[in-house]
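User: I'm putting together notes for a lab meeting next week and I want to include a structural view of one of the chains we've been expressing. I don't have a solved structure, so I'd like a prediction I can at least talk through. The sequence is below, exactly as it appears in our construct file.
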Amino acid sequence: MADRSWFIIAKAENAISVSDLYYSTVGKSHTVAYTCPILSDEGQVLGYFSTRFNWDYIYDIIDSARIGKNGDIFIINNSGYVIACRNRKGILTENLKHLKAAQLAIQGETYGYLFEKDSMGTKIYGYAHTRGYNAYKGKKWSALVSETL
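Assistant: Thanks for the context. Below is the predicted structure for the 149-residue chain, given as structure tokens.
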């Protein structure tokens, strides 16, 4: 696994590393890698511990979200790529950065909403930018919720 980006980054930073969402050819699923060095009592690196997050659990959260019949919910990474959505399509291939709500969220605006028109009519988009937890800065992901009016 020494050629995998999650390992290269953890080794280079010599610290806990959390990857962005990626498709694991080993696990045959989308996942996030959590990797950290294992240190001796003297502080020397003995090896690395790495585990994977079962990405299917994100859908428990998405499926329980209360949105309207004409609504949708997306989780996007800091480049605008869909990393989770209700229909489970377009993961890591569909990019929403063309939406103003996605742009604002990616830029770090904490939360808000706005109206946008498209071929289907007018939609309201709510957005929220993740902030991490405690010392963990997060991956700068965002949630977008849309509702067609």
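A couple of points you could mention at the meeting. The domain at 5-54 is CATH 3.30.450.20 (Beta-Lactamase). The chain has two domains: 5-54, 60-148.

User: Perfect, that's what I needed.
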